[in-house]
Specification:
heterodimer; A: about 350 residues; Formate dehydrogenase/DMSO reductase fold; two-stranded antiparallel ribbon; 13 helices; 2 strands; globular; B: about 450 residues; mainly alpha; two-stranded antiparallel sheet
Chain lengths: ~350, ~450
């Protein structure tokens, strides 16, 4: 049952990264690709109806960890105290920028919120990457089972490289989403930006894979024991290639699916690498938090699974309906909310 | 209590009280928007559509601030109350998880359609979206209240060998005898607040002399719903809540009422200043025997006072006492004002009574204060327990987060939320000044 919940949590992280990932990426390239008010409003309206629901997956991750692995939730979030507070503040700034911008038709007001929106989206993507980097590395859990994660140690070169990769990857993911939802000059500009971002992402995939093998060899142990799982990171590599081909043929839908697939494959590969750890410890691996020493009672896990599965199925059905209703190219006249 | 725990408590109290200003209107306004949209569908009168659109815009602004201030609440259990999360995560994670899966997704997905879908979907689908947003808001309130009710009166759990609590029955959690009257009181308080906001803004238009039709509709709906909700806030929901507190948290009851001495025929204090050093109410105005009646339905019943309990199990008496009296006092004021409004409406002079419209206009902040004060009674009155009878607040904080760190983030939240609050009020006033029929500034540009 604990393994089931590990998979559920990993699935929620993937859902959050893929879904909020594209609107964060859209935010990160917002200032660069949208040059005038009409274009900027087109960008904002493209993510307007969905960013809030996408962000709910983050709450899903948090609360899923709380109910299934309370100790990992407690040690993790209290350990990453300040960085996580920065995440919360940036999320607040970003949400508010989206909702406040359209109330006053004044270039200074709107310009200021565009900067808040774009910069906070950008910093969030970097921080998420830094977080993944530190989880892969393991944190310094003390003999009492806690750790104090200060920025001075969390912002190490490996984690920062991961942060930069996360930024590039989500920008690319967001760019393909925008390609699907916009037309005209904006569409062309985003398409060209995606081409350049693909090069950076492809290069960083290689660099980070080598860096991870060299610096964190522990992550390979599970693959050594069960080589079949290597299919997951290989699928990620295939997505990189598929994206390139789709880009050349201007099949942005395929490219978007491929960037989603790459994000999912990389996170799944990481999850496979750290399993059964939720929060690995370094330099004392035995202090790490695992699905065994952090789990809530089996009865609780079974009860939660019994409402989670139909609940999430329901969510997927009506979100699919909502995306269908709101699909298509964005127009910024009449019906636009922003 | 260490500096760390005090800093954690300040942060939680500040962030939750600021956050709760917004869900009040979300939960209260959503059903009123459904009423307006239903009237529009049924009668085809454009007035209702205009009103629904205006209140949906107010709702969206309010909802956005509610979301961004709500996300930190969920995670503060981990960041600042890590030992509480280890202890109780197996239980409270269930109700909070239900909230995420069954209400947050519902609310946010269909708000997207409500805001961005008009014109793209049929009126009936748009109406359905409004209903589902309201359902999401109400379910969210239910699951949060269920979490809180468990902390007030733990049920459906067992203590595991490692000292943590684990859930044994989700049914017991949702059937908690403390829950349903508390939920009814919370929800009814939200509807009352939204009704007052509606009446108050409607009164502004009538007094200012523009958008009269919209003003009359808002005042009418606000006063009508508000008068009923003000009464049901007192009885049965408030009354039944008091009875639950009497039964399950007698120390809280004694602190709320400022009752130190155990008495048969306990008096109800209308006003007075509790002194914990002299252990009595200073300069009280009392109604003899009334507390015994309210608590037990019997004028001669014995009500136990604070003196019967060790002082280290008392909550902060002054804060609990004043918050309770502020809540009840403002509740009484709202009942009086809204019943008066209903009477004026009955006689057909409501919209012409400028003096009363001024009262309605100025009434706006009071339901907010009453709601917040009610939660202060609930939460401060539960002290020194974090989970009543099971875990003390001092034992729930994160051991690896220092006071200095938390004070840093308290200041960060204070600055951010001050800015948010000012901007939200500013933008809401701007929306009101532009009026319900004004095209939004960017439309067509």
């Amino acid at each position: 049952m604990a393994t089931f919940w590990f998979v559920v949590l990993a699935g929620m992280v993937v859902a959050y990264a893929v879904l909020d990932g594209f609107d964060l990426g859209v935010g990160a390239i917002h200032l660069a690709v949208a040059r005038n008010d009409a274009e900027r409003r087109a960008v904002l309206n493209a993510i307007g109806p969905v960013w809030d629901a996408n962000e709910v997956w983050l709450l899903g991750v948090g609360v899923g960890a709380l109910l299934a692995f309370p100790r990992a939730f407690a040690v993790g979030f209290s350990g990453f105290y300040l960085p996580f507070m920065l995440v919360l503040w940036l999320l607040a700034g970003r949400g508010i920028a989206l909702e406040f911008r359209h109330h006053i038709a004044d270039p200074m007001w709107q310009g200021a919120w565009d900067v808040v929106f774009s910069v906070s989206s950008l910093l969030l993507t970097v921080l998420y990457g830094v977080a993944v980097g530190n989880i892969v590395s393991g944190v310094a859990i003390d003999s009492q089972g806690w750790f104090q994660g200060l920025l001075e140690s969390l912002l190490n070169p490996y984690a920062l490289l991961m942060g930069v990769f996360s930024l590039a990857l989500l920008m690319l993911h967001g760019a393909y989403y925008l390609c699907l939802r916009t037309d005209g000059a904006l569409h062309e500009r985003v398409h060209r930006a995606a081409g350049r971002l693909w090069g950076i992402v492809a290069m960083l995939v290689v660099v980070l894979t080598i860096a991870t093998f060299a610096l964190r060899p522990g992550i390979l142990a599970n693959y050594g024991a069960h080589p079949i799982w290597a299919v997951v990171p290989l699928a990620g590599g295939w997505c990189v290639v598929a994206m390139f081909r789709a880009h050349g043929r201007r099949r942005h839908g395929t490219a978007f699916v491929a960037s989603a697939g790459l994000i999912a494959a990389l996170l799944a590969a990481t999850a496979i690498g750290v399993y059964p750890y939720l929060l690995p410890s370094h330099p004392f691996p035995e202090r790490g938090l695992t699905i065994v020493n952090s789990a809530a009672s089996t009865a609780g896990l079974v009860a939660a699974a019994s409402w989670l599965l139909p609940g999430v199925a329901l969510v997927i059905v009506y979100q699919a309906v909502a995306y269908r209703i709101l699909a298509g190219k964005i127009t910024t006249d009449g019906g636009a909310h922003y | 209590m260490t500096d760390t725990v005090i800093a954690d408590r300040i942060q939680f109290a500040f962030t939750i009280m600021f956050h709760y200003l917004f869900p009040i209107l979300t939960m209260g306004l959503a059903p009123l928007i459904v009423v307006l949209k239903t009237l529009h569908l049924r009668r085809g009168d454009e007035r209702y559509a205009v009103a629904a659109r205006f209140w949906t815009r107010i709702f969206a602004l309010n909802f956005a601030v509610g979301v961004v201030t709500g996300i930190p609440m969920e995670f503060q259990f981990g960041t600042n109350w890590a030992q509480f999360s280890v202890f109780a995560g197996g239980v409270i994670g269930q109700t909070l998880g239900l909230e995420a899966v069954f209400s947050f997704f519902l609310e946010s997905t269909f708000l997207g359609i409500l805001l961005f879908g008009e014109g793209r979907v049929s009126p009936r689908v748009h109406w359905t979206a409004a209903v589902l947003v309201a359902a999401g808001a109400w379910l969210s309130g239910l699951f949060v209240t269920a979490t809180n009710a468990w902390m007030q009166h733990p049920v459906g759990y067992q203590i595991a060998p490692d000292g943590t609590v684990q859930m044994t029955s989700l049914g017991a959690l949702l059937g908690n005898p403390f829950l349903w009257w508390q939920y009814a009181h919370v929800l009814n308080g939200a509807v009352l607040s939204a009704a007052v906001v509606m009446a108050s803004i409607g009164a502004y238009y009538l007094l200012a002399g523009h958008h009269l039709e919209f003003g009359r509709l808002s005042v009418g709906l606000g006063v009508g719903v508000g008068a009923v909700a003000a009464l049901t806030q007192l009885f049965p929901t408030g009354d039944m809540n008091s009875r639950n507190i009497t039964a399950y948290q007698p120390v809280k009851l004694a602190a709320m009422e400022g009752l130190f001495e155990t008495r048969y025929g306990a008096p109800l204090a209308i006003i007075g200043m509790p002194s914990t050093t002299q252990r009595r109410l200073l300069d009280p105005v009392l109604v003899p025997d009334a507390l015994s009646y309210l608590a037990y339905g019997n004028f001669r019943a014995e009500v136990r006072g604070l003196n019967d309990y060790p002082q280290d199990t008392w909550p902060l008496v002054q804060l609990t006492y004043y918050a309770y009296h502020i809540m009840v006092g403002l509740g009484t004021l709202l009942i009086a004002a809204l019943l008066l409004g209903a009477a004026l409406w009955w006689r057909g002079v409501l919209f012409a009574s400028r003096w009363f419209l001024w009262i309605l206009l100025l009434l706006l902040p009071f339901p907010y204060i009453a709601n917040e004060a009610g939660w202060v009674v609930t939460e401060v009155g539960r002290q020194p327990w974090l989970v009543y009878g099971l875990l003390r607040t001092a034992a729930g904080a994160s051991p690896n987060v220092e006071a200095g760190e938390t004070i840093f983030t308290v200041l960060g939240f204070a600055g951010l939320y001050a800015l948010l609050g000012v901007l939200a009020v500013f933008l809401a006033m701007l929306m009101v000044l532009r009026g319900p029929t004004e095209p939004r500034p960017e439309a067509g540009c």
